[in-house]
Amino acid sequence: MDVDRGRVVKGTRFKDLRDAGDPVELAALYDREGADEIVFYDITASHERRGTAVELARRAAEEVFVPYTVGGGVRSVEDMRAMLRAGADKVSINTAAVKNPDLISEGAERFGSQCVVLSVDVKRRGGGAGWEVYLNGGRVNTGLDALQWLAEGERRGAGEIVLNSMDADGTETGYDLDLISAVAERTVLPIVASGGAGHPDHMVAAVRAGAGAVLAASIFHFEQYTIAEVKRRMAEAGVPVRWA
Predict the structure, then answer these.
(1) Residue 243 domain-assigned?
(2) Which residues form the domain of 201?
(3) For residue 207, what is the domain's CATH number?
(4) What is the pLDDT of residues 184-204, one digit of tens each?
(5) In a domain, 201, yes or no
(6) Tell me: the pLDDT tens digits for 39-58?
(7) Domain membership flag for residue 65
(8) Number of domains into which the chain is organized
(9) Is residue 14 part of a domain?
(10) What is the DSSP track for 91-103?
(11) Active-site residue, selected from the candidate residues 121, 167, 169, 201
(12) Which residues, in sequence order, are CB contacts of 163 under 8 Å at separation 6+?
């Protein structure tokens, strides 16, 4: 769930945002419907240089009973600690990690790699030769090679990758399978594929490309599919799923 000023929003390629509801209410609904995990991202915290979404983490702890990750505006180990103490199971870092890669290793040493999620927003280079890392909710192109960055994140102790394709985000035309496969060849970390889900078959394809989990927003927010329908299709295709 992308959160902006306390509301869940969803757009296409990070633009044309639509309101989708209250984040904790939606998370509690998805918990009841059988989601395995919930991910909250305050998508403007880094850009606006605001603090972490600690209050969101605290509210979620009262209503959500599956593991959940919170990210956005995390700049220090102290921010990570505050998020975990508020109830989050994992903390996602993105912009601050690129600016200070030591944050990954410091967080892993302090809290364990299982708590440190390295999130990355990537976009294909012009001409399609590889992918570059973007920061601040997709506003800033770092020029950093995505595959090299994720390999470094693994070396520094990240425990999981959320891999978000900006090209596919919100399009509902399927995940960037080439990107997933390329990352899977460079790292042994679990990959959570993000960006492009429009049909349960897209989830199946992402897992076959190398993802360990699939993240979706639009198809659930706007009631195109239920979580149960997605899991049923994945199970029929031979993908192991966890039933509620």
Answers:
(1) no
(2) 2-237
(3) 3.20.20.70
(4) 999 999 999 999 999 999 999
(5) yes
(6) 998 877 555 555 568 888 99
(7) yes
(8) 1
(9) yes
(10) EEESHHHHH-THH
(11) 121
(12) 120, 122, 150, 179, 180, 183, 191, 192, 193, 194, 211
